[in-house]
What does this fold into?
Amino acid sequence: MLSKIFSKPVNRANTVVCCFVALTVIFSCYLLYYGAVFYGVNEKGDSLKESIAKKEERAATIEGSITDSNGDVITYAEEPGVSAKCMHKSYGQLVGFNNAVYGKYGLRGKYEDYLMKGDKTHHGATIRLTTVNRIQNLAYEEIKGKQGCVVVLENATGRILALATSYPGVEMDVNNLSSNWNEMNSSENDGFLIQNWRKALAPGSTMKPVTATLIYDEGLADTVYNDTGTEKIGSHAFRNAGHAINGKIKLDKAIVKSCNTYFAHMSNEMGAFKLQQRAEDFCIGSDLELDFCHLHSEHNLMTSSAEEAAAAGFGQGRLLLTPVNIAMIGEAIANGGELKKPYIIDSISSSEKTLYQGKTEVLGTACSKESAAYVSNAMKQAAISYGVEKKLGIHAKTGTAQVDSAYRASFVSFNDKYTVCIVENNTQKAGKSLAGSAVRIFRELSKLSK
Amino acid sequence: MNKKIRDAAWLIGMNVVFIVLLVLFAANRQLADPMMSIVIPMLIVTSGALIYAVCFEGDLIIAMSAVLLLETGQMTQVLINEGVSSMPKILLFISPLFGAVCVAVIAWLSKKDLSGEKNSLKALSVVAGSVVLITLMLLVAGRNINGTKAWLVLGPLSLQLTELFKPLYVLFHAVLWQSSLNHKKRFLFSAAMTLGSAGLLLMINELGTLLVILLMWIILTFIYSEKLLDSAIVLGGTLVTVLGGYGILGLVYSRVKKKILLGEKPTGISKKLFQIFDKLRQRVMIFTDLDQYMIDYRDEASRQPVKAREMIMKGGLFGSTRRTTIPIENSDYAYVGMILRCGIIFAIVVLTLFFVIFCRSLLTSVRMENKFESVMLTGAALGLILPTFINVMGTTNFSFMTGIAVPFISHGGTNMLLSVFNVMLLIWGMAGRRPGLVAMLPARTVAGGSGHEEPRDESQDKPEEIPFTR
It folds into this structure.
């Protein structure tokens, strides 16, 4: 029957016409759908339409500035539709970018709704950070060329005075992203995690102050331990760095000497549950949402073996901390046990009003005042042993954690006003090598008070 | 005479209304100098169309649709270029003249007896040879734009010679179908011409025209072949060739890519095949996975599909003054540019005008006894509608994107010349036999419907009835 119908060219032509009719009708319906003409029919299209409208509004807005706590410019735009220029390379990874081709990143991505929403004068809001440009730049110079970061906190408030990060051979130039986009985004750099302040690795001996506060609060500070250089727990024998033998020691000397065997022994004595609880008091092992990033650390001893729990006591084992977590340890001890939440956004304001005000937030009490004072005093002795001048009043603890075939060197230090934490990943050097950088930063910080 | 006055009145009235609307629209969009940009050229074109359609008593609907499309195209270009028409005004004069000359040639050919095997083979060779000659000219002296060597630059003129493939292809088949060759030979020649053209177009990376040629082959074979099986073979064979070809090119591509990663530079035919597949791969990726395409290709051109969508959304139903810049907006993306400025409803109306021209032409041409004219008219109709649909569907991501222009709407001199030629061919083909200016033209008979139409005696006064054109 088909061949009979199609035997005439006229019928075939009619078929072709019908096909084009159908195609025209289907295409017309598709066009209405694709263009999201009717709201609610095409959800993806509707949200795309909204983002287009948003983009247009933003194209007519001069991107808001980002300044430090003194009002000194960090990023600045002069014309609408033109990306703001970052005036300091040290802020590259922190302020990030908002780019049509490369997407959104950093503070400029997170706070796009403030920076790109125009007021009456078509200016976006101004974000004032808690940082100080000269401290930030110095911190960046100290870590530049290494794989690591520097965190500087104000103890009394939790304000972040500097947050610098670096990766060898890759310098993020947010004013010219195309220049080394591929290097920045390479899998060798862990993708885009050059924001080393949220890179969680084993903290090493910088975890010992946390364990030390627990030892003190358990009333074991005066317990004498005979360090023979080896501590056998389960099937594993723990040793000190450099195979050191410290003889009979108590807690304070164990902190100064960074005695692994002591802390392994005491952690085993106290048990995984208490260690877990104390870590949680310091906000370790839980996610923490800060105003510039999401922090994730791991400390789960409840399913660990006795050896793993003992290792966690001195900063190895199943324990992952970010540099910001390590800095918070120092800050809590400096504050007498009170743990304050770090924040970097001081305020956000338009030409008309303040839209957001950053404020100090107390997360809780990490440890007792007495234990904090005790550990603080021991860390002061430790700083002197690292070669730090006594008159500087710096308390410090180093950390050198084994991570794969290299070390993670860390140096957490504080005085009565500030905490400085420096971390260098993938190095062959020990934490003590970072002492000089910390001292230079403290000297600069002392000028702030004058 | 009454009919002439009536037709003239229709055309003038319609054009006056449309031009007034255009001027108001342009004024609302705050264009610079709409009078010079739109009105005067339109008046000139309309006058020409008027004379042609009325004197030749061509199909009024087709004439009106074509003039409306021409005016819409001019308006679109003016809007895209922010108040200035980018096309040289002289083209509006040259196009009808060019079209008239080409139609005269076609009319002369239709009078010639090409049905004999010897004559038809000669004619087929000439047409095929022309296609090869054009390809050689482009390969040797063609200008490479976006990886396609489709342009020949002669001083101030830039001719897109690949546009000539379509009418030559249709001409080949018109000669073929009216020849006395047997069915098998006819099929083989048709296949050879198609595959040969496809191969030549692949060599110069002109994928849009290649797609048009393939679709023309399928549709012409379906309509005109004696056996339905031929259509099945053509359709199946095309699909198998396209998919198989894509697969083979893919294998070559991955091999060459490996060599590039090892530091070797591809040369010769492998380089050519690599480039062809890369282009095809991009088009497939745009259609199937636009997000991944945006990640893999970060240059400005890669953002065209996204911007095109943005333009459609901004345009909405009735158009907008909001703007999005997009590369080659005045040519490949002219339809989307029109949606942005005039709205989706307007764009659908424009598409419908093309469809009206196609429908009327096809349903008339297929009833003609003279196979040569029938195929020429069908080919002319396809030459208008196929590029239109391929372009509008590609730029709106309904199908694969190709770099083909929309007749009348897109910027392009060669495109304009051939679009006007196609329309004039259709008007001529649909016209009845009339005294005066048309006396020199051969009689055209329209079969089917109310019956076979005999050429009437010139001395008769009463008007001629021409079925299928009203």
The first helix of chain A runs from residue 2 to 5. The radius of gyration of chain A is 29 Å. The mean pLDDT of chain A is 89. The interface with chain B takes residues 2-3, 6, 9-10, 12-17, 20-21, 23-24, 27-28, 30-32, 34-37, 45, 48-49, 52, 56, 101-102 of chain A (CB under 8 Å).
